[in-house]
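sorry for the late reply, my laptop died twice this morning and i had to redo everyting from scratch. anyway the thing you sent over, i finally got around to it. pasting the sequence first so we're on the same page, its 161 residues, then the predicted structure underneath. double check i copied it right bc i was rushing
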Amino acid sequence: MKTISLGRSVAAFGVLTLLGVWGCTDRPTIFDNPDPNLRLSSSELRGDALARFPYKEEAPKVREIQARAQVAYPINRMEVVNFSPSDWEDVEVWVNHKFVCHVPKMQRGQLKEIHFPMLFDEKGNSFPMNSNKGQMLVKSVEILRDGKMYQLTVEAADYGI
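ok and here's the structure:
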């Protein structure tokens, strides 16, 4: 029978705990979101998303040139930036007309991190991790604010990972 050193056991336990594999965790990400308003549990994010369905097909569509989104598939994250001269309140970020995440305040010039586990569909499923492996790609990003659906330019982020 092989024995595992105490040091290796403690290290393995620490890694499993950090990744949320050991025990119960309801965190959508390992590290806290830089925006305190987005530091919600997965259950809170899911509940909030479910209350926002269905997708607002009837909302007027507008092309938003003062914001952009970039998708970093290797780290399962999308980043959205508001380049307009004013802050936006009560924003819904919609991906592919199917997944949504509420952002209470999107300050001008401030990057918002929206990790894939923060986006939920109407059945409560989060956006697939490792989407670049063919499961699902981000084809459209829209922002619902003030009753209008704003279409953003979406680029793939190049982090050199």
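Residues 1-27 form one domain.
thats about all i looked at so far, will dig more tmrw
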